[in-house]
Design a protein that fits this description.
globular; Rossmann fold; alpha/beta; binds flavin mononucleotide
Length: 209
């Protein structure tokens, strides 16, 4: 008989970033799919900080109240829209998130949830975009590691705007099931680590592993 896994409920913070929400199709579908899930907080960074004046203390307090942080955004120039970078620069302070005494995020989880314009087969060493999505997301993977966090496999909706309404709805539903599974403690996040990811010492210490 399979051993039952004991998984804890997680408080999930979705940091959603789309500079033109009015024109969004894919990201909007993803955000809508999460509506009404208990334990999930969605913050629209461009709506909260239209002038990029990100308030570090507020964001840090919110981070402390959550276990899983999801960066949800369209894939822009093989990375994230600018406000995600600004958020990282301003919020993940030395002595708080990393460096001497910077252990406030240790033991938490980080995940990226993106939509792309390019098809899945473009993201391959021999494909049009030459690199895999995992290669291109390496800075987020390493940021998580530096902060003592577990970095989960990214959730990706490829060729998002070329999908039929039905296929996009199916992708959004898969996203909902994943996030709801984490929030309800039905999915073990340590089973969803990014390929080849080794848990940092800070994470192991926090969980007494
Ligand atoms: C400024 C900009 C940069 C983009 N860069 C990429 C990219 O590097 N790779 C890619 O696959 N798609 C790229 N795209 C396409 C978007 O990722 C895609 O249209 C978006 O994820 C669809 O979601 P939405 O309907 O919510 O906008 C880019 C789009 C824009 C506007």
């Amino acid at each position: 008989m399979a051993k039952p896994t004991i998984v804890n409920r997680m408080r999930v913070l979705i940091l959603a970033a789309h500079p033109r929400t009015v024109q969004s199709i894919a990201q909007r579908a993803m955000s809508r799919a999460l509506e009404g899930i208990a334990g999930v907080t969605l913050r629209d960074l461009y709506a909260l900080y239209p002038d990029f004046n990100i308030h570090a203390e507020t964001e840090q307090e919110i981070l402390l109240a959550h276990d899983l942080i999801v960066l949800q955004h369209p894939f822009y120039w093989y990375s994230a829209p600018a406000i995600i970078k600004e958020w990282l620069d301003i919020v993940l302070e030395a002595g708080w998130a990393y460096g001497a005494g910077g252990t406030m995020l240790a033991g938490k989880y980080l995940m990226t949830a993106i939509s792309t314009g390019g098809r899945a087969d473009f993201y391959h060493a021999k494909g049009r975009n030459r690199f895999t999505i995992e290669d291109l997301l390496a800075p987020f993977n390493q940021t998580a590691h530096l902060c003592g966090m577990a970095y989960l496999a990214p959730f990706v909706v490829y060729a998002a705007r070329k999908q039929s309404a039905g296929d996009l709805a199916t992708a959004a539903e898969s996203y909902r099931q994943l996030i709801e599974g984490f929030a309800r403690g039905k999915i073990d996040p340590t089973e969803h680590l990014a390929a080849g990811y080794h848990l940092p010492d800070g994470f192991k210490r926090r969980h007494a592993l």
